[in-house]
């Protein structure tokens, strides 16, 4: 039976890239072989995993389903094991439809509405795949008009694009702590519908620390955006952690150019930087301390106002079919033409 003793036994199911970032002092770190019974490899005090592929495959592959089931049974049998993170909590973040519904629900839980800004015409939108894990999940497109929908593959969703001066703030959450890093992001684009061709890109080539892309080069000189205050980030993290039931996750924040308002645009399960920056947390590295202005946080799910159905011979291009569902029917793109709810920085509901 696992116990909290000096020299904790930490089991891990991670890819090679994440294994290299493990940095646990005074702990015995053990790689878990899913081909062998877990009982023979324990006991464990903590199990850290990145089994996103297996969780996705368990929806349509019997072998993967059995592996996940056996894993879950073992953790439930030895209830003192801390699993980072529980499979039911991870699963919704692998499906962008589900993760944005969670954001919408969080927004609806007693959050005061300060007003909706409705804009006529087609808003500049960013198109993302429904599946939020794997190489294909980083393939995105900027859509400038309704004709651009003909170029994308279902299932996918559209999210209103907010000008943010090509700066992204990535928040990495580790338990009750978090840290924030600044990353390059997409440049500003004129508002409203235009005849411009859609721009297809890989988000990894845009928002990595070493990224160098024409899409991140601002067309005109501008001041550095004011980062969100640590108070705002803390409240966002606290609300998301409670709603998601996760200990290891990442949040993507942007600051709107014109207003200084902050938007939550994405949430990810166990990003790799959570391991690499753990030592920084122990030294108390919380760099964001500047106020973001009277309006602080916007939770910006893309599907607040329902789907628009575009007929055509579209089908899911993901192999194997995403989440086990073969889609060869109507091409459904979820989008909204309105900005969602803005929340004051001094509001305490989140």
UniProtKB/TrEMBL annotation:
Gene Ontology terms describing biological process: inositol trisphosphate metabolic process
Record-annotated Inositol 1,3,4-trisphosphate 5/6-kinase ATP-grasp domain positions: 126-272
Lineage top rank: taxon: Eukaryota
Inositol-tetrakisphosphate 1-kinase N-terminal domain: residues covered: 9-90
Listed GO MF terms: ATP binding; inositol-1,3,4-trisphosphate 5-kinase activity; inositol-1,3,4-trisphosphate 6-kinase activity; inositol-3,4,5,6-tetrakisphosphate 1-kinase activity; magnesium ion binding
Keyword set, alphabetical order: ATP-binding, Kinase, Magnesium, Metal-binding, Nucleotide-binding, Transferase
Cofactor(s), by name: Mg(2+)
CC annotations in GO: cytoplasm
Pfam families hit by this protein: Ins134_P3_kin, Ins134_P3_kin_N
Family: Belongs to the ITPK1 family.
The protein, known as: Inositol-tetrakisphosphate 1-kinase
Source species of the chain: Chelonoidis abingdonii
């Amino acid at each position: 039976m696992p116990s909290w003793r000096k020299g904790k036994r930490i089991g891990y199911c991670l890819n090679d890239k994440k294994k290299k970032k493990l940095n646990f002092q005074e702990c015995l770190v053990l790689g878990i072989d899913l081909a062998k019974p877990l009982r023979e490899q324990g006991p464990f005090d903590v199990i850290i995993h990145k089994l996103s592929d297996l969780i996705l495959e368990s929806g349509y592959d019997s072998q993967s389903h059995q592996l996940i089931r056996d894993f879950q049974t073992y953790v439930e049998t030895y209830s003192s094991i801390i699993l980072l993170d529980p499979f039911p909590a991870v699963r919704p973040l692998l499906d962008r439809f589900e993760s944005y519904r969670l954001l919408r629900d969080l927004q609806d839980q007693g959050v005061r509405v300060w007003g909706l800004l409705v804009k006529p015409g087609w808003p500049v939108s960013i198109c993302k795949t429904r599946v939020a894990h794997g190489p294909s999940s980083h393939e995105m497109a900027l859509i400038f008009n309704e004709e651009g929908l003909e170029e994308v593959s279902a299932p996918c969703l559209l999210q209103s694009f907010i000008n943010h001066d090509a700066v992204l703030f990535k928040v990495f959450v580790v338990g009750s702590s978090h840290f924030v890093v600044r990353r390059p992001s997409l440049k500003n684009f004129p508002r409203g519908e235009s005849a411009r061709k859609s721009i297809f890109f890989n988000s990894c080539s845009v928002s990595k620390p070493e990224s160098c892309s024409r899409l991140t080069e601002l067309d005109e000189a501008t001041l550095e955006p004011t980062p969100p205050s640590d108070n705002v980030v803390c409240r966002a993290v606290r609300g998301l952690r409670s709603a998601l039931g996760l200990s290891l996750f990442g949040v993507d924040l942007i600051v709107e150019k014109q207003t200084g308002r902050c938007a939550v645009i994405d949430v990810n399960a166990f990003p790799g930087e959570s391991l690499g920056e753990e030592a920084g947390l122990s030294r108390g590295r919380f760099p964001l301390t500047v106020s973001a202005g009277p309006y602080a946080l916007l939770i910006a799910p893309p599907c607040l106002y329902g789907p628009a159905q575009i007929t055509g011979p579209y089908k899911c291009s993901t192999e194997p079919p995403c989440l086990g569902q073969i889609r060869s029917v109507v091409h459904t793109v979820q989008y909204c033409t309105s900005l969602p709810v803005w929340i004051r920085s001094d509001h305490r509901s989140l």
